[in-house]
Specification:
The chain is an alpha/beta fold and 302 residues long. The protein has two domains: 3-213, Alpha-Beta Complex (Spore Coat Polysaccharide Biosynthesis Protein SpsA, Chain A), CATH 3.90.550; 219-297, no CATH class. The chain contains ten helices and twelve strands. The protein has helices at residues 3-6, 22-31, 67-80, 101-106, 108-114, 170-176, 188-198, 235-251, 257-277, 281-297, and strands at residues 8-14, 34-39, 57-61, 88-93, 119-128, 138-140, 145-147, 155-158, 167-169, 202-213, 219-223, 226-230. It is globular, with a radius of gyration of 19 Å. The protein starts with a helix and ends in a 5-residue tail after the last helix.
Length: 302
Amino acid sequence: MNPVAETTAAILVLFRPASDPAAAIARLAATLGQVVVVDNTPAGHPLLGATPLPAGVRLLHNANAGALAGAYNRALALLRRAAVPPRQVVLVDEDSDATVLQALLADPAVQALLADERTAAVAPAYCDRATGLRGKHMQLGRWRLHYLPRRFDGLQPVAFVINSMSVWRLAALDTIGPFDEGLRVDHVDTDFCLRARRAGLQVWLHGGHEFRHAIGERRRYRLFGRELQAGGHSPERRYLIGRNTAWLGRRYLWREPAFAALCAMRLAYEAVGIVMAEAQRGPKLAALLRGALTGLFARRLR
């Protein structure tokens, strides 16, 4: 185990009662110094008590309190109380293949960034399991956005990374503060990256390291010659996506006008994806609109 891996802890959030997390837990325990497994299933994961957990692994029952953001906050509180707190924390979703972590943390360029107090996080690129497409990333100015190509080599500063497989310096997490539990799931990562930016910290993406990840049930489609992805989320999740997107756009409108414009484009993108590639178009579009209106006018999120 390399020295950076030894000082890195993983937070693995489980939310599917039918999944067997044993292999993922064992892989993380063999790669990193500490692992916190958060059981976020409402009734308790039925397979977690079947076999003893590996050494260095702690189990936290959260029962989906505060949803994904709550799971992170409670696991971070546990890690901060450890006899030897980690220097870095990697957030892992059970829908992610974490085998890339060892190579990522052994990369000298990544190690140099994680030793830099100006760094918030470093993440590998993600490839969607369903579509085979890499996620698109961007660089954000106050008044403009710049999209990076889906594939690039090496490190690039980016505006946002998804939660899963992002490696955060614990000192940066302390500076940024807790995850917003009002957002619950969708755009928890977006908000956190924006807050890192406000704190003068940089988020990095390494295009030379890739992991497979599932976000919803994505489907490919083409529009005006471009290959795009529809999210495939349920009407209930579409409501949250609409609500959180509109709320964040309104919240950051004056500080980050380009981001607010991105939120409007994101809502349009969601609607187009529903129409072009998904079933239940009516209920999903209605839920997205209802959520967006709620986010525009809500005083706070619950």
